[in-house]
Amino acid sequence: MTTEGVSTMRRLFLGLTAVVAFVFVTSAASAPTATVAVSIKRSAFSPASVTINANDVVTWKNTDTIDHQVVANGGSFASPILGAGKTYSHTFKSGGTFRYHDGLHPSIKGTVVVKGPPPQVTLVTSAAVVKYGTPVTLTGAVSNKKAGETVTLVQLPAGQTTKEVLATLQTTTNGVFSFSVTPQLNTTYQAQWKNLSESSVIVQVAPMIKLPFVSKSGYFHFYVTAGRSFAGKIAFLQRFTLAHQWVNIRQLPLGSKSGRIMSLKFVRASVPRGRWSVRIFFPATEAGDGYMDSASGTQPIVKH
Q1: Across residues 202-227, what is the average pLDDT?
Q2: Which of 18, 124, 211, 299 has a Cα at 20 to 30 A from 59?
Q3: Is the peptide bond preceding residue 80 cis, with omega within 30 degrees of 0?
């Protein structure tokens, strides 16, 4: 073979090698993430523990006939209330062990183990779902475990597009920091460290509803309290059935102060004969963006 032929073959070989390398790198970079399915059953998550890689997705599906809610113990993720057949997905971007529970049935627990490097700064909340007016404590730590490190806490309330600086903190012994806050509506909180690492949690807020026992005059009086007025919105009187489900039995338009008065006679007329538990339910569809479904405590009703 001539020198020119050898040179031509060398160029062809190098070109082919470059193409193969490009295809390999492109394929590796664009490799799809995996999605793992978890079923929510009456008394368990199935499977109760899954192991995934960083950036994989876990999708929970409510295969039960009653409501459930997926809530991370540390508040790093929380689903809305999931009715029968509804799903919720979360992408796990960093390594670690994430324990979670059912917010409506706390005895139901699960674990997601994520392979990959741990985050450089962590952030957890004392509660992922709270009633309006309830304070939560945000705590975290930096990976070098040093005191005196500067951590910036920012917040992003629902409906806003710009993060707000909440506090600038100094870490204490073992690189730990802590801060208390009272969210006014669903809010994402984020810890930022050295402009290189960040960690987020979401705290979801439900309006506060108190249903005191019937007064001496024979009336129930309740308010739906949050960071905005709910005048004219519809709350619902609910009854707990023998099938262990809450059902709507009356619509209750709220007054100018987001409250309502109803007589014991009115409530008794709304239920069958027997002894029942009733409550006030206020759906997120009425509360608007930034709030979850909410319910009051229960009161007993007897109809002869």
Answers
A1: 96
A2: 124
A3: no
pLDDT single digits (tens) 110-141: 999 999 876 689 999 999 999 999 999 999 99
- Check if the beta carbon of residue 238 is closer than 8 Å to that of residue 247: yes
**pLDDT tens digits, one per residue of 253-262:** 999 999 999 9
Question: Residue type for 251, please?
Answer: Q
Q: What is the DSSP letter of 78?
A: B
Q: Spell out the SS3 assignment of 147-197.
A: CCCEEEEEEEECCCCCCEEEEEEECCHHHEEEEEECCCCCEEEEEEECCCE
Residues 133 and 178 in one domain: yes
For 10, the token pair is 């060398």
Q: Which of 82, 170, 102, 155 lies closest to 125 in space, CA to CA?
A: 155
Could you tell me the residue range of the domain that residue 299 belongs to?
Answer: 208-303
Helix (H) or strand (E) holding 277: strand 274-282
pLDDT category of residue 195 using cuts at 50, 70 and 90: confident
Residue 16 lies in a domain: no
> 181-196: b or e for each residue (b if 16 or more CB lie within 10 Å)?
bebbbbbbbbbbbeee
